[in-house]
Amino acid sequence: MSFTGNYICTSFKRECLIKGHDFTTGTGDVFKMALYDSGASLNASTTAYTTSNEISGTGYSAGGFTLTNVTPVESGTAAISDFEDVNAQNCTFTCRGALIYNYTAGGNAVAVYDFGANKSPVNQRFLATMPAFGAQTAIIRLI
To answer: Is the Cα torsion angle 33, 53, 120, 90 positive or negative in sign?
Structure first.
């Protein structure tokens, strides 16, 4: 198993200070969630989308699911953003984790998520539920 936890990618943090990423709903950058098997080597040092160990299967296309942005807000001293849940129907594949990346910016990595175990829908719905939209819980938060 190569997944070792959940990370906001270090390169993403640097890019936020240089050129930024636009998470604005409807007009911002396009972000995607690519799914990977347990052999993927993704962690905080991941800098870009890769096809290495990306899954294939029914209901999943290479490059991953297009995410729907939630416009960033301030919450106390944090800045937070989020995405709508991924809800794909009639899926058959096995995945261990995901990479969220900025498709508009050429595939720059944003975050890596370890699902903790393989997820293997068989002609079923694949649901990736995003955490609550809050300063301590949002999927993207700068605190």
So the answer is: positive
